[in-house]
DNA sequence: TCAGCTTACAGTCGTGTTGACCAGAAGGCG
DNA sequence: CGCCTTCTGGTCAACACGACTGTAAGCTGA
């Protein structure tokens, strides 16, 4: 056992943050911010945003706070991912990390601050990160891709109103495959959670598409909702 | 803020344990073991099995250990559920609990030890528990019922071999609704994860049913498996 | 101005899944 | 040996969903 017996287990909160950025092949790709470690252990390596849990702060609030500290943004979706507590995941002391994952609006993230100690990277081709953070991001990616298929979190990447093509681009970027526009329209309308705004998005060289708004109150049965998962957490 | 500023946050591991027992209406019901608190706070109240996390023990091992301590059993399924860390969930200090949920084999659980400080209760009609443990059990129940529908964890309640009727009873007990025997057979066989043992269960006053065995290696694609979730954890 | 281009949007068709239902098989029991 | 039970295999219709076709409606450029 590598730790001092009298050293207590330390509790940290980290957050995997996702946003979308335009990609080369016309399809958007997932990006995530990393922070450079400014102290030992693993000084200089890139790691997930996070920090020690203050005694009087809620877990979710701590996650949102570190998210704001590194990106200047408020999450549009924030959910607990998993708690990582392997005995040897940190070389110095026993550290248990409660990890959250978050989605932030893409156009806001484009204006996000990125200093010398904050760096955005494509989530699918990460550099070698500190501790077990590569594995954590991979798990968060798996959860995002799984959850996009059976919930309505995709709109968290977009603004208040969006076209069906924009929403489809989000799905295609997350799922990494093309979707038939007509079928996509049918299933999204059938979900009952989209409301037409009555407005259209003009300016493009084709027929102007309708603008929709996400309506969380619509046709949602009680038993498919998850307990205590807030979709719009207080930042 | 009710806590002393210098008191550190304490880290606990608790486990929600489920098994099946024969019920009145012919349908089995879910039972869970509780332990009586032997010290303050909430002394005398019933609570989930658990304890403080030792510095050198893995989270999952700690969960399996407390499970063994209260039931004398090894889990056939063990998975992390959620981490509960509300600032005021414990009146004395800040306590963050990493909660696991487990399934134990029903016939083994029937022989499980139950002393004056261990009590098995139906999981759907709990008494008032200590702290936020009622909410935790409710969430574990929701997760069990959700996960039974898209995974193959139901066999964890049964022994090595079982009939399709026994397996169907498990599903009916967990989902709390009747299932058509013929359709149930079709979907289970189509899943490809059941193997005939070649033996039959004799002795009943009807046609003897085939005995099956669960085969986890069969026809499982790589991307529907969850990362680092062990189905047969080391006890 | 008008052909032509692009995307929005609507509908059809075939397939696979799933629930409801039916019928024969194969044991034990009176 | 009839009769009960459950086991087991099958059909049928409703539905969801992917592939595909066709029309609508804007903008652009010659």
UniProtKB/TrEMBL annotation, chains A, B:
Residues 199-235 are annotated as: Disordered. CDD domains: NUDIX_NadM_like. Coiled coil: none annotated. Pfam families: NUDIX, WHD_NrtR. InterPro entries: NUDIX_hydrolase-like_dom_sf (IPR015797), NUDIX_hydrolase_dom (IPR000086), WH-like_DNA-bd_sf (IPR036388), WH_DNA-bd_sf (IPR036390), WHD_NrtR (IPR054105). It comes from the Bacteria. Residues 8-145 form the Nudix hydrolase domain. Residues 221-235 have a biased composition (Basic and acidic residues). This is NUDIX domain-containing protein. It comes from Agromyces lapidis.
